[in-house]
């Protein structure tokens, strides 16, 4: 394990402005502990100065009272892969019980958000902010930092550190030499890096280089394919100047990787991930959407008006596209293989995080939890992927991810137990952020 990973801890805002309020007593709730998988019924939770101070039966306190009878209290949920640049989406996340966000592509607006969070009087989810996307010399996403070589990679990291990014976001078209320089510079600077696995970089190399998390299962199907060398050569000649052609060819290559899977290679990679503390954020909701475009199962059609405004036009175009039958079958096969990979990663003990790529703010996280549960995690481990696991990943497990004395008072009260059915995370009665009922 790379040393700075074990020590990394994110300075999440304490929401100081909320602490002046009256104490809050949540009464008669069943408290769910994701770490232990236990539910303790008929508990009262006393919240003071933004933190839980007491949990027990029949507590007495001079406090405002929230009657929780019949509800199950779980820690606030985290979406660990978000792209949002519109402040109007943030209340929607909170309404869906998402009290924490990891932004996976920095933008100028995020510096304003960071300042407002530090001020402590803004009812918005807690947030962790990436650098701008660091990509190859012809980036595919606007606002990216273009990097062509090792010197450019080192300069990009220096810029990200100077701009106070909390981690560096790496992307698909980085040249291998630039990626290696970025990894070395991040380790030297003590700043984590996470994101895509570049086309030129084997996934095992990314893990050994210290990449903290891998998004979308990037590079995993390729790294477990018996045809990896040939597919990698074809990836090297993709032309980003024509995105439609590039993404169609990527679809074909992903399918070839999925249909040439070698479980022995997966087991070997799993050990590399464990040795280097490499986390995965599968974003199955994204992969499901790609696999169902042009079919009645496409999940986003009813929610297109609610998608992040900057991202909505692209998904509206996708939603109206009708791929041919061969493409539909190919994408379905890739999605089913992705579910298999998630199941095998989980069985091997490799840590997973719930993330959505945003899509529908808040709502998509519940979709992701359901997909993780049916992919083999079950309800408890799916819930952990949005509660205790984010706290561990961010190095704040002593303050987040549980409803216990000393922990941040971020709670979601549900009308049904998510351990019975993960869909019950949608049955939200109340959301509490830093002791404030939102």
UniProtKB/TrEMBL annotation:
Q: Any idea where the Amidohydrolase-related domain is?
A: 73-437
Task: Note the SUPFAM superfamilies from the entry.
Answer: Composite domain of metallo-dependent hydrolases, Metallo-dependent hydrolases
Report which superkingdom the organism of origin falls in. Answer: Bacteria
InterPro entries reported in the protein's UniProt record:
Amidohydro-rel, Metal-dep_hydrolase_composite, Metal_Hydrolase, Metallo-dep_Hydrolase
Put simply, this protein is called: Amidohydrolase family protein
From the broadest rank down, the organism's phylogenetic lineage runs:
Bacteria, Bacillati, Actinomycetota, Actinomycetes, Pseudonocardiales
């Amino acid at each position: 394990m790379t040393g700075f990973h074990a020590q990394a801890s994110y300075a999440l805002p304490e929401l100081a402005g909320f602490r002046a309020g009256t104490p809050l007593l949540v009464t008669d709730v069943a408290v769910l502990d994701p770490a232990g998988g236990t539910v303790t019924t008929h508990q009262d939770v006393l919240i003071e100065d933004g933190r839980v101070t007491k949990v027990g039966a029949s507590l007495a306190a001079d406090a405002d009272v929230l009657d929780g009878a019949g509800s199950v209290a779980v820690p606030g949920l985290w979406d660990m892969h978000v792209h949002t640049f519109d402040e109007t989406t943030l209340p929607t996340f909170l309404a869906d019980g998402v009290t924490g966000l990891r932004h996976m592509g920095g933008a100028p607006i995020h510096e304003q958000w960071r300042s407002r969070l530090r001020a402590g009087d803004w009812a918005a989810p807690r947030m962790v902010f990436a650098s701008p996307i660091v990509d190859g010399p012809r980036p595919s996403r606007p606002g990216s930092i273009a990097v062509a070589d090792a010197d450019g990679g080192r300069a990009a990291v220096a810029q990200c550190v100077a701009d106070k990014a909390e981690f560096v976001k790496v992307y698909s078209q980085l040249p291998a030499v630039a990626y290696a320089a970025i990894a070395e510079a991040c380790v030297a600077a003590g700043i984590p890096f996470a994101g895509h696995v570049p086309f030129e970089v084997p996934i095992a190399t990314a893990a050994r280089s210290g990449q903290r998390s891998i998004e979308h299962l990037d590079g995993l199907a390729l790294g477990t394919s018996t045809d990896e060398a040939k597919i990698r050569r074809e990836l090297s000649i993709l032309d980003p100047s024509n995105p439609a052609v590039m993404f169609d060819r990527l679809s074909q290559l992903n399918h070839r990787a999925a249909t040439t899977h070698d479980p022995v290679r997966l087991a070997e990679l799993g050990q590399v991930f464990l040795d280097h503390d490499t986390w995965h954020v599968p974003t199955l909701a994204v992969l499901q959407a790609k696999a169902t475009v042009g079919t009645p199962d496409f999940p986003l059609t009813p929610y297109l008006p609610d998608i992040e405004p900057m991202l909505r036009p692209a998904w509206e175009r996708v939603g109206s596209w009708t791929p041919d039958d061969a493409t539909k079958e190919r994408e379905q096969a890739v999605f089913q293989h992705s579910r298999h990979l998630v199941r095998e990663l989980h069985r091997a003990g490799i840590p997973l995080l719930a993330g959505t790529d945003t899509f529908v703010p808040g709502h998509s996280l519940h979709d992701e939890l359901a997909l993780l549960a049916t992919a083999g995690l079950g309800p408890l481990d799916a819930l952990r992927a949005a509660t205790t696991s984010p706290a561990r990943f961010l190095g704040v497990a002593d303050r987040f991810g549980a409803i216990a004395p000393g922990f941040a008072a971020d709670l979601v009260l549900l009308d049904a137990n998510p351990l019975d059915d993960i869909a019950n995370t949608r049955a939200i009665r109340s959301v509490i952020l830093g002791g404030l009922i939102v």
